[in-house]
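Render this sequence as a predicted structure.
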Amino acid sequence: MADYGRAPEFGYFLVPNADDPLLETAKLVDSLGLDLIGVQDHPYQRRYVDTWTLLSMVAAVTERVKVFPDVASLPLRPPAVLAKAAASLDVLSGGRAELGLGAGAFWEAIEAFGGVRRTPKEAMDALEEAVAVIRQVWSGGSGLRFDGEHYTLSGAKAGPVPAHDMGIWLGVKGPRGLALLGRSADGWVPSSSWAPPERLPELNARIDEAAAGAGRDPAAIRRLYNVNGVITGGSSDGFLRGPVDQWVDELTDLVVAYGMDTFVLWPEGDQHEQLKVFAAEVVPAVREQVQREREG
């Protein structure tokens, strides 16, 4: 059993398809009272609009929902500039931006778009350097210096400072990435497709071990979960593929038994209908059931 005691939050995975009503969907998410909107980052995907441009527009047309890249593709986003973009969005949105960051995937597509193809070791080295660079840029200091193999700062002047204590959330799954997260990041962003519930205890344990070794409280690290499935009116057809009561039970279990605290919905079928059912029927019931189980 692993329950880190955080209040559960809920969001929506907005696929940046240029042909979809993206801003209308974002406004619906905001009006339904969900907490987050995450947008995947694949600049080489011709059907998608740019993630940072979309996040900025979403922040502009909403009032309360938080936004984040789920997750930014580091090989195509130089970390100092990425840090500036994230801090700027946070300032302009009134503290409603967070930074999800990944080491990179789909290397042929990255290379075709002008990025550098990296080995797994190089990708992790670069990610570790990027976290350090971003922290420096967010400090707002001047004369910033960093001498890494992949990234450097040479007397840089930083600003603006984020409007709130922005998190760096890593989309990692290997031992080295999880150790880096435990030592120096603020959150973990796995997806149910590659980190199913049965794998979560092992992966969380790696994060916790690294956090404790660095003198950090593992409970301070946020655990987000991109959840793919469909809410139906019929019987269960597998994990997160079934009626509302199944979703409530499974998400509650993910909080109190598996340590996850934030669920970013990536539904199949009619997106707006799935969103409405999720917000009206699943979310409040999960909050109540989590509270009951913690108190019991």
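Summary. The first strand starts at residue 9 and ends at 13. The longest helix spans residues 271-295.
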